[in-house]
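Handoff note, outgoing to incoming analyst
You'll be picking up this chain. Sequence as last confirmed:
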Amino acid sequence: MSSGFRPAFLYTAPGGLPHTSAIEALSLLRSVAPIVLPCPRLPRRSANERAFVQAMQGFPGLVSRADDTRILVERADLEARLEHLGLAYLSRQNSIAALDADYSVALGELLRQAELRARPTIVTYHLPGPVSLGLHLTDDQQRPLMYDEELFEAMVQYLALRMSWLSARLSTAADQVVIMLHEPFLSALDSPFSPLGWQDALDLLDRVANDAGGDVWLNIGNYTPENWPDLLQTSLSGLAFNTVQLVHLTQIPAELRQFCERGGVLIWRLVPTEHEAAVQHATVEHMAAEIDQTLAQMDAAGLPTEQIVQASLISPTNELDHLSVPTAEQALRMGAALSALLRERYQLAPTLPL
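Most recent structure output, in case you need it:
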């Protein structure tokens, strides 16, 4: 797992931004998160950059419309295309999952800038994870792909190839590439009607992480699973959490300590970005005090402060594309200021990948 990276309260950001210019979005992100730089997603520029559309663009039979949040897979005449995808997956031919330029203009701009600008140490690319994709995408009978064994397997294969392709492309723009998977629908696994259980989800996450060929981090939204230790023992190298989830993590100090010792990264989803008012009412001082208090609680639970802060990365609580541009920029700069304050207070310097 370990790449030698210890973030020591560096700052990063989610992928979704409200901007419509890739140049402006990247300029902003370089100013606040120059070391752990996200490749932005700009859904207000084009519906093609909606998270689920961007993740699955090019998948056999995929149909998405700008005026419809649904994303369908039409089953007609898919057999040969699915067989071709399966063969590409087995032979690791990730070019079949190449992302068209119009579905991520920031990716093209970031690669162009790589020849002109200082390279970030890490570039992150944010994608929905396999469970959430399997619930959000449906067949032409409005049935989630998770309930169709053949289509769901093909979807997982395609996601793994997309992750692998992105990791390879972005490796020319940074010293290290991280794919951040978002799984906002994991709570559906608690339903008796779910075709997947918790262990199935862990196996899927492990599988796509291993297939990606690089570091993979995970954001499970606000879901609090009962089996945190199982999640910490996967091949995922980073875990994002909110303050509620942190209470549960402090109850398994041995597992969390082992995760950090293996090089795992803890992403604190702390800067509030749920809505405009949350950003306006937040202060750097309040967030710093919250972290100080949390670190004291963790230390009392047997998690040494030095070990935790070295493994920690600061992030907003949510994507920013639903905010106005000024508010999103305010939130990003507030997070950068929080990072600077914490690194000064704890006298920290990041350890960068070799």
